[in-house]
Design goal:
The protein has one helix at about 1-50. The protein is mainly alpha-helical.
């Protein structure tokens, strides 16, 4: 029984790390796309003013 608890604990820790890693990678990707969208919009506005 004790061995199963250790194995289960290791699996739970791996799953938690995977979830946190995936959430972190996804958040950075979204922020990068949003900042690129604002940068291109600023360039378009500058081109219209010229």
């Amino acid at each position: 029984m004790e061995k199963w608890l250790v194995v289960l604990g290791i699996w739970v820790m791996c799953a938690a790390c995977a979830v946190l890693f995936i959430r972190g990678a996804t958040a950075r990707s979204d922020k990068r796309e949003a900042s690129e969208g604002h940068a291109s919009a600023g360039k378009a506005q500058t081109a219209l003013n010229d």
